[in-house]
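Hey, can you fold this one?
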Amino acid sequence: MISQTEIFGDDFNIQQIESWFRDEAEAYADLGAKNLSSYKYKYHYLNKLYGYNTISKNNRLNHVLGFGSAYGNELLPILNQVDKITIIDPSDTFVGKNLLNGVTCNWIKPVPCGDLPFVNNTFDLITCFGVLHHIPNVTHVLSEFSRCIKPGGYIMIREPIVSMGDWRNKRAGLTVHERGIPLSGLYKSINTAQLEIIKINIFGFGPFLSLLSKLNINPYNSSILTHVDRFLSKIFKNGYIYHAGTLKERFRPCHAFVLMIKR
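Sure. Predicted structure:
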């Protein structure tokens, strides 16, 4: 059973990291994201509510990094404020044509160890939505974010914070290694990376999301459903637990959206 306080994989050696990287590089694309015409981004309102609304509409973003941003859809709501975008993603599927709706965009493949090929203080904003739980060495990657963000720039991450089942067995709709990141382990990694949390929102009320999934409804592009989820998550936030063994323990929020700056 994975620890409820430590991030599994954070202490892996380079051989273990490289093996994990090979398994995950094309895994997300292979789950159904390879066809751009049928690809639908599911988190626009959620990202605005917990993240982008923090950025003043008068604030120009000279250079933005989308870490694991696939086609770059997560950045569409702020494109009118952005001059240049860099996307890091391991899959050949998502490589664009150097423009994202008219904004200069450069796609770069990551290296397994997580080092970023940028000088210090490069970016005004770094987004990392649903990516860290796919990689082993979370603390190192957060430390690289800290190194590359400009003073006063924002880092936004969004991650599952509960167990996602035993990956030794095939799990429908999940990649081979992805696992939820324990909330206490996430706090520890953020502190080690010398990042400061401006705001953290715990969301994703488990039973509500399960019901909507059965009805084939996506909540996070809907203002109403996102706010309902926010309300329910606040009510049950004290019930958070990484491993849910009983029905009662499943009545808890399952995700975190964290807004940070460099100390």
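The longest strand covers residues 149-160. Let me know if you want another pass with a different chain boundary.
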